[in-house]
Amino acid sequence: KQEVTQIPAALSVPEGENLVLNCSFTDSAIYNLQWFRQDPGKGLTSLLLIQSSQREQTSGRLNASLDKSSGRSTLYIAASQPGDSATYLCAADTGGFKTIFGAGTRLFVKA
Amino acid sequence: NAGVTQTPKFQVLKTGQSMTLQCAQDMNHNSMYWYRQDPGMGLRLIYYSASEGTTDKGEVPNGYNVSRLNKREFSLRLESAAPSQTSVYFCASSELDGTYGYTFGSGTRLTVV
After folding, report:
1. CA of A45 to nearest chain B CA: how many angstroms apart?
2. Minimal CA separation from A17 to chain B, in Å
3. Region A24-35: what's the mean pLDDT?
4. What is the mean pLDDT of residues B40-69?
5. Does position A55 have pLDDT exceeding 80, yes or no?
6. Burial letters for B38-72: b for 16+ Cβ neighbours within 10 Å, e otherwise?
7. Is A99 on the interface with B (CB under 8 A)?
8. What's the CA gap between B62 and B100, in Å, rounded?
9. A1 touches chain B (CB under 8 A)
10. CA-to-CA distance for A84 and A105, rounded, in angstroms?
11. Nearest C-alpha neighbor of B13 from the set B91, B105, B107, B86
12. DSSP structure class, residue B67
């Protein structure tokens, strides 16, 4: 059974710092890995989607990498800003309409 | 604006009451999903509809029913609400089976007392 883990559960950093959020999954047989952002009381906003054949995706200050063999994905945020404060979730698509979500990392960027 | 629309945004029910959560998407997506989100846990799939006219159970279907009314709309019904169903419910849609990712609604915060 696929399990997705995000560590740490919460992270506080000063503004301007580069940071890495981690996502690990137990079964490497995934079709894609998606990163989402969730603001308090809001829905999930898709940030980046990495297909299983890809190693990374970039959007602005965000870069996500995928290493299926080690069961890991990372989300790199460059030059963090207070507006980046949110919960970040990763989700592994295992096929058959089944996607497993991590519990998220709650990020707080201090001004 | 294109996206997934959920109603209501908030609801308080008494134990035993029933209600239906509504979801509509205007992206012409084939597949739709209902998830619940509980503190400290990832989203868990309740039901999904791979295409119009089909529905299937997810990880936590007990206590829920769904209807895929047409390609745009997918509703979730609680027949007899229980305190364990207090949660935030999200509807999502995807073009196919999630290969190209998901689009989520803004959620319904449900409290059962």
Report:
1. 7
2. 26
3. 94
4. 95
5. yes
6. eeeebbbbbbbbbeeeebeebebbeebebebeebb
7. yes
8. 29
9. no
10. 12
11. B86
12. E
CA–CA gap between residue A44 and residue B93 (Å, rounded): 12
What is the reported pLDDT for B33?
97
Q: Look at the block and give the residue holding tokens 């497993």.
A: A100
CB contact, 8 Å: A2 with chain B?
Answer: no
Question: Does residue A107 have a pLDDT over 70?
Answer: yes
What does the block give as tokens for B98? 């999630």
What per-residue confidence (pLDDT) applies to A96? Answer: 82
CB neighbour list of residue A104: distance below 8 Å, 6 or more residues apart = A6, A9, A38, A87, A88, A89, B42
- DSSP state at residue B15: T
Q: Coil, strand or helix: which one is B85?
A: helix
Exposed, middle or buried: residue A77 (CB in 10 Å: 0-12, 13-18, 19+)?
A: buried
Q: How many CB atoms lie within 10 A of CB B96?
A: 12
State mean pLDDT over A67-89.
97
Top residue of A44, A51, A94 to mutate, by most chain B CBs within 10 Å, is A44
- Write the secondary structure of A66-94 as one string of H (helix), E (strand) and C (coil): EECCCCEEEEEECCCCHHHCEEEEEEEEC
